[in-house]
């Protein structure tokens, strides 16, 4: 099932070309969107969440076009969106905020709406603080509050912009469980800087850089881009594209290995770093 | 010897047949006796317990309505719409206090000659326009992104909030106008205000609300200030029948134009 399509999408903000011909499809399951800062991830997510419109190109969600007002409303009824920087109404408690978003999602029956609010608050493990003011909560709890709001109404397409930012390791594990469950039979698009989240959760990965989709495939295929290009040495090799000393004192290198170097199995992060690095070289050439 | 509630009595209690002092006695005993608590608990239907628990949860969780929300529901606005409207930043008490302060200053200034009267005629119609700009928008509403991506009609939200804030700030302006010494001036702000607000809303079809309000306010204020600078009789102009009629025509045209918007018509249909 194709949940969303993005075809040759361009979007410019002043002098910045945020999206420059991005093209890919999003199927069911969890799709990770990786890319460096300024790659156009948030712009793309805002377009898919029908918050912004592209300058050119075509976007469809469940076969419907966001440019058409009627179809846009149909998309929004099946959408859950967690913005990168979610804001909160002044003075609202967790319950009041999620209830407010539930009204915006047209859950008008008070009793049913409150039941649904309780369900999503429990799903993100915030029941014990549901009466507390959002502004008094930690960053991670605020993020989970916004995540709860995005889960209202059991959306068929969940668009999450950096949902794990500010979460501690335990919360991240709980989040993975939640998203993995949400991805069953639905589509989840997850923008993140955390390659571990993508490796742990996603069936598909899109790497975006400079407004273009550089890669679209499985996490294993992204890792495989680093095949034969990752090696360890006792000292730093100046010819490596990237090198860092690891916890065991040895230096992990990415790039073209010297002859005789014993390469190791690459991780998804290795594949991603090499891909984004190679793009820079190609652009400069 | 420890006494326990006989099973027939427990059954009678659960079915509501035991009342008054005897029921109170059973309840007091159940609080301290685990055996009887278990017996009574077994007999109470699960669906009844669930319903009671759901009612308790509802009472505990139910959001406390703000003063604006209570007022809106009292005048017939549905509970869900009242929540969205009352969250408009320009309905917050701090905002309304600031508006009251500005209007009080303008009303005081109106008692100090023609220039003061013109100041009131500038401030009173602009205040509701600023309130509309402060009701909804990207830079105003902290939940703007989420509200735009939701299925609730944006135009409906905007109109509901605009209506509420115009009434609130309009009432404050009307109260301030009671302090204005010239009765013609005290009433002359209403039609320009109506025109400015409706044109602001009509322009928001193309411009962000904030820009639209800024543009409309500038178009109203600058010529008046220019006239004052050139010692023209700005006061006579604003209260003239021609200027008032023009404001009425502009307001009517803006409303008519807004009704050509299918989104607005859809939003109004939804409210019927």
Computed structural class of chain B = mainly alpha
User: What is the highest CATH level, the class of the largest domain in chain A?
Assistant: Alpha Beta
The coarse overall form of chain B would be: elongated
How many strand elements of chain A? 12
Tally of individual helices of chain B: 16
Major β-sheet profile of chain B: none
Mean pLDDT of chain A: 90
Separation, N- and C-terminal Cα atoms of chain B: 69 Å
Strands of the widest sheet of chain A, in order across it, are 5-6-7-3-8-9
Quaternary structure classification = heterodimer
Coarse structural class of chain A: alpha/beta
**CATH homologous superfamily (4th level) name of the largest domain in chain A:** P-loop containing nucleotide triphosphate hydrolases
Helix content of chain B: over 70%
| Most residues in contact: chain pair | A-B, 38 and 31 residues
Structure annotation, total helices of chain A: 9
Q: How big is the Rg of chain B?
A: 29 Å
Please identify, by name, the CATH architecture of the largest domain in chain A: 3-Layer(aba) Sandwich
Largest sheet of chain A: 6 strands, mixed
